[in-house]
Amino acid sequence: MSEAFDAEITELAGWSTKETSEGSQELFKRQETSKDELGREIGSVIQLPEGITLDPSQIDIDKPDDETMIINMGPQHPSTHGVLRLMFELDGEVILRTKTIIGYLHTGMEKQAEQLTYVQGSTNVTRMDYLSPLHSELTFSLAVEKLLDVEMPSRATWIRMLMGELNRISSHLMWLATNGMDLGSTTAMIYGFREREMILSFFEKTTGLRMNTNYIRPGGVAADLPDGWEDDVAVICDTILKRSFEFDDLMTGQPIFRERTEGVGGLTAEEALALGLTGPLLRSTGVPWDLRRSMPYLAYDEVEFDVVVGTYGDNFDRYSIRLNEIRESIRICRQILEKMPAGDYRVQDPKVTPPPRGRIDESMEALIHHFKIFTEGFKVPVGEVYSAIESPRGELGCYIASDGSSKPWRMHVRAPSFVNLNALPVLLRGGLLSDAVAIISSVDPVMGEVDR
Amino acid sequence: MTIASTPSLPGIGVSAVLFPAPSDYAACIAALKADAYEMCVDLCAVDYLGHPGRELPVGVAPERFEVVVNLLSLSKKDRVRVRVQVAELDPRVDSIYFAYPGVEAMEREAFVLVGILFDGHPDLSRILMPEEWEGHPLRKDFGLGRVPVQFKEAPGPR
Amino acid sequence: MALEDLRHNFLTGRVEDLVKWARYSSMWPVTFGLACCAIEMMGAGGADFDLARFGMEVFRNSPRQADLMIVAGRVSNKMAPVLRQVYDQMMEPKWVISMGVCASTGGMFNNYAIVQGVDQIVPVDVYAPGCPPSPETLMHAILTLHETIRTGEITKRRAENNPIHLSETPKSPWVPETPTRVRLGTPR
Question: Of A214, A142, A172, A120, which is closest to residue A413 (Cα–Cα)?
Answer without folding.
Answer: A142
